[in-house]
Design a protein that fits this description.
heterotetramer; A: alpha/beta; 8-stranded parallel beta sheet; 3-stranded antiparallel beta sheet; 7 helices; globular; disordered C terminus; C: alpha/beta; 3-stranded mixed beta sheet; 4 helices; 14 strands
Chain lengths: 232, 232, 218, 218
Amino acid sequence: MTTAHLTDADAAVADIPDGATVLIGGFGTAGQPMELIDALHRHGAKDLTVVNNNAGNGDHGLAALLNTGNVRKILCSFPRQRDSWVFDGLYRSGKIELEVVPQGNLAERMRAAGAGIGAFFSPTGVGTPLAEGKEERTIDGRDYVLEYPIRGDFALVKAHRADRMGNLVYRKTARNFGPVMATAATTTLAQVSDVVETGELDPESIVTPSIYVDRVVHLPGVSELAREGAAG
Amino acid sequence: MTTAHLTDADAAVADIPDGATVLIGGFGTAGQPMELIDALHRHGAKDLTVVNNNAGNGDHGLAALLNTGNVRKILCSFPRQRDSWVFDGLYRSGKIELEVVPQGNLAERMRAAGAGIGAFFSPTGVGTPLAEGKEERTIDGRDYVLEYPIRGDFALVKAHRADRMGNLVYRKTARNFGPVMATAATTTLAQVSDVVETGELDPESIVTPSIYVDRVVHLPGVSELAREGAAG
Amino acid sequence: MTAEHTERGCLDKDEIAALVAADIPNGAFVNLGIGQPTTVADHLSPDQGVVLHTENGMLGMGRAAVGDEIDPDLINAGKVPVIETPGASYFHHADSFAMMRGGHLDVCVLGAFQVSCTGDLANWHTGAPDAIPAVGGAMDLAIGAKQVFVMMSLFTREGTSKLVDECTYPLTGRHCVSRVYSDHAVIDLTPEGAGVRATYGVSLDELRMRTGLDLMSN
Amino acid sequence: MTAEHTERGCLDKDEIAALVAADIPNGAFVNLGIGQPTTVADHLSPDQGVVLHTENGMLGMGRAAVGDEIDPDLINAGKVPVIETPGASYFHHADSFAMMRGGHLDVCVLGAFQVSCTGDLANWHTGAPDAIPAVGGAMDLAIGAKQVFVMMSLFTREGTSKLVDECTYPLTGRHCVSRVYSDHAVIDLTPEGAGVRATYGVSLDELRMRTGLDLMSN
């Protein structure tokens, strides 16, 4: 259905209910929808399941959301980082559930959710502790484990530019999980720094077609500031 | 490894051996690598398995390859067409084997081959004659059939433009099966009407990265002629 | 309550297409199958903001191309040259069918040989033993949207109902059709059976007699 | 026959990286893991035409960015800002890992805690009971190329061999490592066992004694 356009991150996340599964884009800070995460934190939904490549850094963004106890469970590939003290503390005190998923399986399981695939046999993780308890099968002489889709109720992603219709393009390696998560959630919110008129994006270059985008949250200046900050 | 550049379609297909599985791009004439198919016909490899959306039209291209008995088996979604008399005759006289595959399963099975997926559960075809004999499973209340990858020894695709490195972009709906087949074959040949210097294609807009392209066959004028012909 | 339009004749194809078009929600993403379903596009108003999907790799498909617009690289699933509308996007076949299989389209409109009261669809094969099987995207389309609408005449030329208790033709998909738009009636299909929303040129009772089906009043 | 370089000391990290770089075929598509493997890039000559993949969605990755080149949207898998080389392309995470899982990369270079003589890899978890598990792309990389090279010191600080008959650390992948580049030797691994291509600063016999392994001469 028609993509909504908003400029208020708080309004954009206001209907995310307690208990929702929220897919959050980004790999490091690249592609991380920081303003939407902060809005989700202010919104205060509880008992969330979060899917992200990591489990928060420092004290802001996802780490802040974890710190206030809003997240019941996290699925990620790499929770342990130099500055993941918030997650580390919660995990060690048993206050958060963790499912560690190899990064490629994480992406492919969300892709499967978006593509209507019921399950798939992946060679990644075979023979390792992360495959324990999973169905294994040898196909054509190679071993695989059966992996199931990861679906989101909401996806929060960051793109570079949207058109009025909701088509998205990304920027460099900030693309990462965004296009996959957008297909895997019932409701997808994309924060962008730039919105152009419909027809101004090259139809050959659109990465996420508008069918996958429910809300565009236009936050001009955000990514430009980040870029200047890092370059300066 | 480094993509080879050729201008001779016959040289490009010269090492396709008897018995090879050849994925051939195109949906109707859009994206159909007509000159590579004709070269394969002249080359004369026998006992081929061909994967294409259709089973040849009229007397040229794929139909000609079928007509001379070079194809043992064809996998396609829609063999029967108004002008598929060559295939029809061979099929009715038992001279060609046919595996009919729903179009989306055809694409997804090649995608699985390219993506290292051992098999996947698809909801398409459940309860129909095309699912007979296949493993079925109910997952989360929905029924699925297990589908296996389709791998090619060679893929023949048509793109719009390549750079020296072998990166490809396509044109409009001529993209169709090309990018998927390029990932699913051991050796991929892309016929293009235009070659530009490396760096001239926008990195955000490359559809098939050069890693999937073994040979670029530069046939300038071919697609322009087709376009003029159809428009005139 | 079924709306019984007995004061008029049954619907012609154009009227069926107009009904379908009117029932497509604003802003919906829609795939119109080859043949009769394609004519629904002629009845969509620009105000509806409906975006058309074609399974050969495009969202934002426009009308049939004419004259200089014709471009052999820009065709629909019926291989007819079409035009591009503003905001269109292109993608490859695996992505295009992922979009359908994943349930992202709002509506698919298809033709049918037979439909069962619980939504089974038969539209790809007559079951004739000498027919060459050819499915194309039919099975993908059958399960490829939140709602699947079928457009068909309710009776064969011989007067047999094409809405049936059990399909006798080979299936395209199970429990996949949400609604049938036919010349004589618009009928909702659910696992519980068929409920008639409206009749045209016949009463609900007549329809029950002619089809021999246990039709509910919706 | 093993090339025994006993006239010299063992290799330093830089020499190991140079050896790996020299063995990467011209035009290869290569993923260099985080840490020591990253340094292989410094030894690749432009003539080799090697194209670097980073699993966060890019082919044609260049060196670390400096000064004004730094762009937070352009980073490698270690989250270090990098530059783009001509002919680079970007893709999303599912496509990026499909590229690895599908076996399209020619070489992955990884670090390791332990490697078994038949190519099992342990490089993600020490097995310490209180460690927080974190795998990242390690398991995908382990099976993500036609050849997987491991760079490591052959012995722990305590002198224990990191090449072992059976890994005692939790596995990252089974039968996935093709070759180990270490300070003391370059060793091919196959389902039949370990074959030493070259030794540095030790003889093959010494290596057999110190590792306690049944090393073949390759």
